[in-house]
Fold these 2 entries.
Entry 1:
Amino acid sequence: MSRLENKVALITGAASGIGHATARRFAEEGATVIGFDLNAAGEHWQDVVSLAVGSEFVTGDVTREADVVSTVEGVSKAHGRIDILVNAAGVSSYGDTTDVEEDEWDRVMNINLKGSFLFAKHAARVMLAQGSGSIVHIASVEGLLGLNGQISYGTSKGAVIQMTRNMAADFAKRGIRVNCVCPGAIETPLTAVLQDESMKPIKDQMVSAHLLGRFGEAIEIANAILFLASDEASFVTGHPLVVDGGWTAGSVLSV
Ligand code: NAI
């Protein structure tokens, strides 16, 4: 039996990285997947459609409530329900407290925090009407640790973790679970900037911060999202699931 048989899943950020890996993984498990992204899906979305007939892709901006409302209404009308929402749209940002301009702060908060709030707000209304649902946000270990030069990104991710708890409490008695994953560094276009030779010293430090001594793969986060989204996690809500190769667990000293 597939783990997401008969489930309808809406996934933001589905054109790339963790969102796309999740869409593909969900399709393998029998879900009908509706991807949403600012960018068009590209050819690789065919993987998802060929695995899960009826899957679709919608372009739009998570920061625009009109885009969110029309997408949620469209999915609800076409499929009759929304069982799972995964908020994987997000952007990185660099700069410390005295460097970051107001526009950049607003951009990061709007995409990483407000976009996830808006999709949860509207998808939850559908879930409340049907009496069940599972929402998974993507936070980060950077919402748990304070890293230098990451003031807006880290703050947005810390807020996503707290938003997860508040939403879990809002919906606990009404059939909706809300959780988030906190990935370590993952090989996706978001971290591609670290491939540049000039970034090697930083990348090396980040690799060694993970006890497992490597960056993660998008599929390793997709598998954790799958667990939280599925009925296997029926007693889990308000939880930030850390999937970070041991980054936050400790460090290995040279002896
Ligand atoms: P990615 O860059 O591969 O994918 C992010 C997707 O979000 C892109 O397809 C992009 O077009 C979309 N997006 C950006 N702004 C949008 C908007 N306004 N409206 C709609 N879509 C928009 O990045 P990745 O790595 O897959 O990141 C996914 C999530 O995971 C993000 O929230 C990121 O912060 C988080 N994360 C990523 C980590 C990593 O090391 N890659 C580590 C921890 C968290």
Entry 2:
Amino acid sequence: MKASKMLISTLKEAPNEAKIDSHILLLRAGMIKNEVAGVYNYLPFGLRVLNKIENIIRKHMDNAGCIEILCSALQPKELWEESGRWMKYGPELMRFKDRHDREFCLGPTHEEVFTSMARDLIKSSKNLPMNLYQIQTKYRDELRPRFGLMRGREFIMKDAYSFDKDEQGLEVSYKNMYDTYSKIFTELGLHYQAVLADTGNIGGNGSHQFMALSDVGESEIVYCDNCNYAADVEKATIFVDIHDDEQLKELQLVQTINQKTIEEVSNYLKIDPKKTAKTLIYHDYANNKIVACVLRGDRELNEIKLVNALNSNENYLELATDEEISQIGTYHGFCGPIGISVEVYVDEEVTLMKNIVVGANKKDYHYINANYGRDFTGIVCDLKKARENDLCPICKKPLKQERGIEVGQIFKLQTKYSEPMKCVYVNEKGQNIPMVMGCYGIGVTRTLQSIVEQYHDEYGIKWPLNVAPYHAVIVPINYNDEAQQKLALKIYQYLLDNKIEVILDDRNAKPGFKFKDWELIGIPYMIICGKRSNEEIVEFKNRQTLLKDEINYKDACEKIISAVKNI
Ligand code: ATP
Ligand code: MG
């Protein structure tokens, strides 16, 4: 392709909205263009990368025995009523009515559609197991669309759904997808970690997320170097190591005027925050109740664990307001588990602590020497967020913590959809048995941006060769110079003949301007035709290493051809 005929839309400065490097670079390199918040158009270079990523995903899915289809984004309300999600899904679901007042949504995911597809089309148990997938556009009215393609309101997902006869079958299908995802993210060059994940309202212990490791990731993971335990902090459990042998002391009410936070109270009473417990009051709208949660003072509450303990829903759980707190007879900043009028959920760690400080449910008062079992009880569960240096639940060694971008997630759905939607097969005894399902998603556009996040420098993007929009670019210093133009055209033809995706920069512009464009866009190899063109010597530059070589044009071409062959 000749640069003069291409749509190159590089920008000197990124628009203000872009906050993280990968978003800034995708905009500046002219890969994507913003329409409204969370909605992007893919420009020629971006689209080429997207197609390559999709094809790598497709290759591995096909190799794993999955079957590709393509479903509509438009989904009728009735399907979502069958699964019970029309009410439950919340404001992220983009709903609308057609001219006949019939209700629809734009699919944020396709469990209902694929379940109905399998129910209608898989006629015989001989066709099981089956795994159907698509690469398709999804819509989610995200509360805070941000970071470009990382969290869009429209994005591309590869979603797959497996249908098995039984649990053992699902185990095999799930493992197959776990392995396939590992191959996909490895081939895409991502530094990633597979972690145990929470299953949300789906339940069970069957989900993994694939996290591209990055400081800008919205997810936190903990992992153990010693035994390979790795989990999203939403899911992570820890080994609790408390052996407090203190004799129980007498419970005492102490005045703590205006000392509300754990920091204030522990400073004021000169007590280690680890000897205090905080009590958080939540309003669970799903179950229509107010609850108190007690955990060690220096801990953070993991809301997902609370959602699970309450059998509630993330979208329906909120910290109680000061007014709601007063209505249950206590005071913000002085809440505690002793004598409180609502259900109490106690983190297991608190049950092992002795003589601790807790709020007294009385303005400007705390109790000291409170003890679980003697002074208060409650429903014991795990509510705390794991963090660095907590102990691994498997081998008890200190855990490490990192941030990650969730690029994929796999779930064992079991019969959550097949049962209500009557997606069944007939067994040997003639009985209708619900198919056992799994679902498997990859955020394709989020993956694209994650690659940029991991592969860039101050000059621009450094695409790995297998997903780069083009393999190579030829830049004559001055295209009007006869020797340079002649050599450039010769190289261009030679590379095209060898199936290299190559650009010839025939633009009438300063060399520095041209170099900057290609470095920003991130083309892996650059061949510069300059002063020594009549000797057929070129400058050969590698975008990853930034190393430059003066070599014969043929050698430069051969290096590119052989690198592309080895992709
Ligand atoms: P998140 O927790 O980041 O909102 P999710 O767990 O809701 O994501 P899934 O339902 O598991 O997402 O969707 C499968 C994949 O689709 C995710 O792993 C992620 O890579 C991608 N994805 C989800 N939401 C978005 C979004 N708003 N924009 C871009 N990609 C997304
Ligand atoms: Mg997910």
